[in-house]
Amino acid sequence: MKIKRILFFIILVIQFACKKPYDVPAININYAYLVLEGNIEIGNNKISVIHLSRTQTFKDTSVTTPETQAKVMIESNNGSSYPLNETSNGEYTSSPLQLNSIQEYRLKVITANSDQYVSAFVKGKAAPEIDSVTWKQDKDLKIFVHTHDPNNNSRFYKWEFDETAQHNAPIESNLGVKDGLIFYRDSTTQVYNCWTTTRSNTIAVASTKALNTDVVSYQQIHKIIQNDSRLDIRYSINVRQYAISEEAYQYWQILQKSTQQTGSIFDPQPSQISGNVTCVNDPKKTVIGFISAGSYSEKRIFINNSELSNWAFTSAGVECNVRFGAQNPNNYLLFSYSDTSYAPQYFVTGGGIAMYKISCLDCRRAGGTSIKPAFWK
Asked: Where in the chain are the domains?
């Protein structure tokens, strides 16, 4: 999960006693702590994805930078080792693996500067099925998960999710330009409908340890502020549920509480935050992360804008003013308008081309992809 800025705030707090004067220059110090995010996935043909990054200064807008060119592997307590390949900056992905719940597993990371990090060996836990994912709107939209373990074995839960939002270009056009020639778009080349998918950036955990039965009801895992653009047309959330250890739960719960206290170094100190990852060659180095192993269950829901009340996203405004240009007398499909920020929208009856800024015609300019996800109904 991308709890980047909060992570650095926590690290900053750890560096200073609660009642000491605040040293402003300290926020410019780059501690470059390693951050590990991800899980070791147990089961048949399961793929594990681990994200590595480094903290930066608190003033830096990105807060972390990807940790590239590392050697990452999953190790079993029976001596087996499974390498992960860097598939994008700081993202390391395994091949489909057959990891079982009998063995214990850990993550091993050797960074480009030869520091070696290992997580504790952990045994995989199987997550029970998600009973349902529901939502409720008062003003904002709140999303809840419901689950239970009939064997009363899970007790500690963690949820992650991916959310996908459909968004459209301000103006639809069935024309495109390639190599200076106008062509007619079809369903495979359309740029009116786009979909943007993001990972969860919040921490959601719960415990049923104090309950007689292992049941979770109306556990809020996400909130979307009213009129957010993600629900302007259609929205989908895919929730993944993990059963975690009590130690992992305590770690994530502390981080969760810290994310709710964002204001002052005089807040309760998260000094007891300690994951299960250590630096082998320098145990004093601070490392952020807790690596768990297990199988997850998942459930996806869709929400249409028409199901919501008083939900109307208002764009900050891309000015979409039409311009008209003449067609090439030798080839009406030739397009060579001097302002390359414009593209054709339609042919004018009797001759000519109506044009708009590309940002008004191509939804990809606002992010995402124009290729419909396979799961989109």
From this structure: 4-307
